[in-house]
Amino acid sequence: MAAGPEWHDARHRQREAGCGVGGEEHGSPAAVVFDALGSDYEKAFASSAAHRASLAWLLERLSPGSTVLDVGSGTGRPTAATLAAAGHTVLGVDVSPVMVEIASRQVPEAEFRCVDIWQLPLPEGSYDAVCVYFSLLQMTRAEQKELVRRLTAALRPGGLLVLATVPLDVEEFDGTFMGQPVRVTSFAAQDVIALVREAGLTVEWEESTMFTPSHPEARPEPHLFLHCRRGGA
Predict the structure, then answer these.
(1) What is the pTM of this model?
(2) Which of 11, 116, 151, 172 has its CA 20 to 30 A from that of 33?
(3) Cβ proximity of 81 and 62 under 8 Å
């Protein structure tokens, strides 16, 4: 996400043929944007050292054969690929048919579904870990809070949630990302931290960094990574 008009929602929420998405209240043109970007998105963010460090943190704490939900799985790299290679059972969900096709081809060891997260059943305590890398940014603030609450409830007691976002205080900001129009909403860093704590998570490690995607139209953007645990282990 750019600190100015350059933004991305690494993940998508679009009413699109072939994807089982929710009602109109959850529709957006985001899937169209990321259908167009395809593998270019992966290339633009492949050099993120903070993302790799975040996955390393998670891998160090997961028990063998853990179940992991990757919300907004994109092309499957690096998140699902890294976790599946370590022997974990990974379900990736995304509303972009193009992204799901790419991920299924690149990471056959994981399962990918073209589905809106709002329609995915999330039974209580069903996952050991949940990854939410840049997948909230085209939701309203109320939706972001509700989804983090639901994802926390889907964790087993002591389960882990890793969340990454662009910590800027903006609401329904119209800009472009890699030449594509996007509308995003986000929170300032302290409000993101408050949001996950209110959902019942303890922040065990946080990292803030600046990152410039590898794309001619990209600009430096702030990234915040939160590494959290649900209570009751």
Answers:
(1) 0.86
(2) 151
(3) no
